[in-house]
Amino acid sequence: MALRVLEIIFFFYFASHIPITLLIDLQALLPGHVYPQPLRDLLSWYAEEFKDPMVLDPPHWFKSFVFCEAVLQMPFFPIAAYAFLKGGCTWIRTPAILYSTHVATTLIPILAHILFHQFPTKPHPGPQTDRERWLLVSIYAPYLLVPLLLLLTMLLSSKYNSASKAGSTSGKAKKKN
Amino acid sequence: MALRVLEIIFFFYFASHIPITLLIDLQALLPGHVYPQPLRDLLSWYAEEFKDPMVLDPPHWFKSFVFCEAVLQMPFFPIAAYAFLKGGCTWIRTPAILYSTHVATTLIPILAHILFHQFPTKPHPGPQTDRERWLLVSIYAPYLLVPLLLLLTMLLSSKYNSASKAGSTSGKAKKKN
């Protein structure tokens, strides 16, 4: 069933986001000594390979998103992973709508920055050519596309919008699957 | 009734946002010749008085938000203004949740930028002192606070969360006011 496939996609998205946030993204926010050298090397390799200066020298506006990731989103990841692994948990609908709208919104300025900003080449090189810009866009794009898919699923799926949600029981409520 | 007071606040917020977006905010996106000189002078006066360089020389990440305002939010303003003037329009709940989450999210990087960025003094001066930074924060803060108030109202108000929303009628549904 198509909905179950989507739920599994969402499970993997949220489950994988936990180590990604903890081990990679939060390096932009926390002092370097918190992380073992191999992880710091991994981040440096990524930033150089994909020409992403934002993770090494984040502008304050970008850093505010990492802060949101740590404080608002991290607690949600295991809850959402559980809900979509289990499937059919209509109580996840409103939190998922809030999460997906929030995250999709954060990707808009990030992608605009990647596509249009005149990046310096030092101390941390940013993308200079169209090819480099679109490669970096492709790294961030899943964090726009999966949340949008999640939002559409929560808004349009009959299972997540049945009258029996919110725990109310009604003799006339239709249950569609 | 407290809910009606909130609805009137939301009406004025959305109704006032229409001219603010069209006449002020969109100047950051559209060519200067689109606007008559008095409006351009108004924007210049504001930018100098409140030391807001973002409206005169917007970074691409900021410009992406103005684009969202024009394309995603503008069509919503008159609809939301009507709904909250009329009152009790439960169909506005989900769109209002999407709007308020989106806009509150956009304010996070903007406020971080105002509070922490090292602004140049030329060609367009940015805030340098704490006092100047907090003054500029106070200009933008309503666009965080009212959306958050709207979000909480949509999530917590019994009227906007009654089982009779979404047009389903149930003999056992409770209607709370």
Short description, anyone?
The first copy, chain A, has 177 residues and is an all-alpha fold.
Question: Which secondary structure elements does this structure contain, and how are they paired or packed?
Answer:
The structure is a homodimer of 177-residue chains.
Chain A: H1 2-24, H2 37-49, H3 60-73, H4 76-86, H5 93-116, H6 130-140, H7 142-156
Helix pairs in contact in A: 1-4, 1-7, 5-6, 5-7
Describe the structure.
The structure is a homodimer of 177-residue chains. By secondary structure, chain A is mainly alpha-helical. Chain A starts with a helix and ends in a 21-residue tail after the last helix. Helices cover 63% and strands 0% of the residues of chain A. The interface between A and B is medium-sized, with 34 and 34 residues.
Computed structural class of chain A: mainly alpha
- Number-wise, the strands of chain A total 0
Roughly what fraction of the amino acids of chain A lie in strands?
under 5%
Q: Give the overall shape of chain A, derived from the CA principal axes.
A: globular
Terminal-residue CA separation of chain A = 10 Å
pLDDT < 50 stretches of chain A:
165-177
Most extensive interface, chain pair and sizes: A-B, 34 and 34 residues
